[in-house]
Amino acid sequence: MYREQIKVLDCTIRDGGLVNAHDFSVEFVRRVYQGVSAAGVDYFEIGYKNSPEFFPGAKFGPWKCCKDEDIRKATQGVENGAKISVMVDVGRVDMDAILPASKSPFQMVRVASYVKGIDKAIAMENRFSDLGYETTINIMAISRDAGPELDEAMDQCETQSRAMAVYLVDSFGSLDQEDIERLVHRARRFVKTKELGFHGHNNQQLAFSNTIESIIHGVNFLDATVYGMGRAAGNCTLELLLGFLKNPRYDVRPVLDLIADEFIELRGRHEWGYIIPHMIAGQLGLHPQDALDLRKTPERDDYRAFHDRMTSLLSQ
Amino acid sequence: MYREQIKVLDCTIRDGGLVNAHDFSVEFVRRVYQGVSAAGVDYFEIGYKNSPEFFPGAKFGPWKCCKDEDIRKATQGVENGAKISVMVDVGRVDMDAILPASKSPFQMVRVASYVKGIDKAIAMENRFSDLGYETTINIMAISRDAGPELDEAMDQCETQSRAMAVYLVDSFGSLDQEDIERLVHRARRFVKTKELGFHGHNNQQLAFSNTIESIIHGVNFLDATVYGMGRAAGNCTLELLLGFLKNPRYDVRPVLDLIADEFIELRGRHEWGYIIPHMIAGQLGLHPQDALDLRKTPERDDYRAFHDRMTSLLSQ
Q1: Count of CB atoms situated within 10 Å of the CB of A305
Q2: Percent of chain B with pLDDT over 90
Q3: Where in chain B is the domain with CATH 3.20.20.70?
Q4: Region A150-155: what's the mean pLDDT?
């Protein structure tokens, strides 16, 4: 598949950071940035630009509430560096602390929102847009919030925002290629002048094939992570996606080096990927939190009991 | 997806046996047979029915050249037991040692063949058919042998064999959903009166989505293995497939028990699944042997060198 408009965004540190409370060293983040930049990736999402006052008492590393100086340390001077993206959550950013794009070390801001928060997300996106950033709106949990309110949210993104792309986010990893085909065509009825994006989760080993399916139907902004590192089951793997895209500007080999040098070892210390409770949550279309909680208990591998508990939740 | 004609075949012991030289105990095979039977699976492939004289000096467990008495020990008396299938390779079976179906403990024989061996495969299939077995022909390496000779092979399967199904086997795990759509429609031009089957490998995390895609286009015989256990990257996982099929006769929970009780531990001792050299082989459409050999060496995680060596092989 070759299409010039396709942009690949690596969100290993941002979504992968949900696995380890964003506790990566600056050196590690710099190493990943060098690798994905050498691979020709277009955007590198370095973390959340939320504000720490919204997380009193919480413990986390530097990439949950990125400081501009840390972003600079991790990225300055890297040859052919990918553009830097940060993600923000609705209601968790002190907007007065955000510098204009010309004075900051990142170029793109992605606003993550559930359908019900879309008004606030658009207002926030427009403020970042005013400050000179490239912006996207990432509509989360799109398998759950799939009623007419989703149409309205997509219509608002088209008509009220200046985002360059509207992302469809399969937060629960519950969609398959037939769902993706329908969803992209549905989105296109509303989002006519902006790009569409896709962010998958790999609960059912479908994140890559769903990304392929989104490409087939015209989606151009594609999220992936090195070795699939991301919350719970993780994401579409960057190495698979780059291998699929035939654009000669991508080179999978620096990503292979990152996996060999860093991510095999990291996976030994932190859990993500094809794990049965996450698979069950994906099959049932549920938020990953119950499975994440289960994995911290002695019953972590009692799959049948978890399956039955989740199934009974659904039938209440 | 609910379609009455769909048949699920579990080949955990047969394809998974390629991981451990078919060295499963009778008790383990019986446990798996009980589990997949309780899950409502239609067929259970217990191994190869090849003849040991074709493997002089080789060491392997009981399920590479299954004896009827071992099959009986592993399966007799199991409640609502799935039908038993065995696989045979062209040229590796002493046909005179095969009893009629009425006197043997298995009901189905699947003949595995490359396109170039299809004449012999059909002759063999017809002999098994004469003996009263249900039969299929499984065309392997269908991504490689994809020229006009494949059309001819499929036409021969239709017109010269009595197989109930013709399987399309993505031996190298290199196909994606667009390939599957084209392949199934191509096969249907020739195979008009028999069922089609699909057997995927998971090198690119596409075995499940390719199986879904084959279902969408009318394939009714579906292979899967518990926790994906199979050669190299393994197969479509049975637990994902049963969760996708909405037929109430399937119950994923006994498969979850097998994973919790047996396959997590087994995966700790034997390697299959998403492993980067197998991913590379899948992306490049290569036979898994080079990656399998690599994993036995100290360079097992030198992905870049393996990638470059495989790529240069292709450009020779």
Answers
A1: 13
A2: 96
A3: 7-269
A4: 98
C-beta atoms of B260 and A301 within 8 A:
yes
Task: Name the CATH topology of B7-269.
Answer: TIM Barrel (3.20.20)
Q: What is the predicted ipTM?
A: 0.97
Inter-chain residue contact B240 with A209, CB threshold 8 Å: no
The whole-number pLDDT of residue B2 equals 75
B201: left (phi over 0), alpha (psi -120 to 50) or beta: beta
Task: State pLDDT tens for residues B208-243.
Answer: 999 999 999 999 999 999 999 999 999 999 999 999
Residues belonging to chain A with any Cβ–Cβ distance to chain B shorter than 8 Å: 176-178, 202, 204-210, 212-213, 216, 237, 239-240, 243-244, 252-253, 256-257, 259-260, 264, 273-274, 276, 279-280, 283, 301-304, 307-308
Pick from A67, A65, A104, A64: nearest CA to A83? A104
pLDDT on residue B1 = 66
Q: In chain A, which residues have their Cβ closer than 8 Å to the Cβ of B252?
A: 283, 307
Percent of chain B with pLDDT over 70: 100
Q: Which of A192, A129, A200 is nearest to A167 (CA)?
A: A200
Burial classification of residue A211, based on how many CB atoms lie within 10 Å of its CB (0-12 exposed, 13-18 middle, 19 or more buried)? buried
